[in-house]
Amino acid sequence: MFTGIVQSVGVLQSIVRQGKGAHVVVATEPGFLPGKVQLGDSIATNGVCLTATALRDTAYEADLSFESFNLTAFAQYTPGVKLNLELACTPVTRLGGHIMQGHVDGVGTVLERYRVDKALNIWIKAPQALARYIAMKGSIAVDGISLTVNEVRDCDFRLTLIPHTQGEVATTFNPGSVVNLEVDVIARYLERLMVAGALPGAGAVTPPVAAAGEQGSRVSLSSLQANGFL
């Protein structure tokens, strides 16, 4: 799990296709890995959860499956590109951003960037299949950065980066560039609850276990609407 607060900026040293996937080597800043990362640990790399398969003092290696390679912007990366890095969080990590899994849902395209005072406003086009998960004032991860959606127009959404964020991340948000998108995990599960409850013969969704003496709560489309979720 991650929080979307970028901790360091790395550089893609190499990316080599292996079958339908790829093997990558990522160079890191001194002190980012030693004493903090062990073999098999997860590192969010531009928002993609990668498992460290080899470690050096200032670099790590990882493999991308066919799924990860084709659903993310890694398919378009070349050596030298800068990458946002975040180590997996612990039970005592400050949740400065929002809950992220590093499971990229798709790739978006930067449409426009412009400044308002010192803030940087970014418009991004999301794939149509992801648009329903993006809500005004909701959270979204863009290249592993936890950001707030400030405006939504169909498949397009606007973000605002404060000066501190601009100075801490690798992503430049140049128009035409592609970015990894991970939607809010709560939206994904909420949709699944609604779909499961609507399946023929399924009825309303009931939690698998209820506390002793308590009646299991039931979730339905009408109850979600009545309580302001829709």
Architecture overview:
The chain is of the alpha+beta class and 230 residues long. Helices cover 16% and strands 37% of the residues. It is built from five helices and 13 strands. Strand 11 and strand 12 form a beta hairpin. The longest helix is centred in the last third of the chain and has 14 residues, at 185-198. It is globular and about 55 Å long. Residues 205-217 have low confidence and may be disordered.
Q: Count every helix, treating DSSP H or I runs of 4 or more residues as helices.
A: 5
- What percent of the residues sit in helical stretches (DSSP H or I)? 10-25%
What number of domains? 3
User: Approximately what portion of the residues adopt beta-strand conformation?
Assistant: 35-45%
Main sheet makeup: 7 strands, antiparallel
Stretches with pLDDT under 50, minimum 5 residues? 205-217
Distance between the termini: 27 Å
Radius of gyration: 19 Å
Q: Determine the oligomeric state from the structure.
A: single chain
Strand order of the largest sheet: 4-3-7-1-2-6-5
Mean pLDDT: 90
Instruction: Please state the overall shape, judged from the principal axes of the Cα atoms.
Output: globular
In the CATH scheme, the class of the largest domain would be: Mainly Beta
- In total, how many beta strands? 13
Order of helices and strands: EEEEEEHEEEHEEEHEHH
CATH topology of the largest domain: Elongation Factor Tu (Ef-tu), domain 3
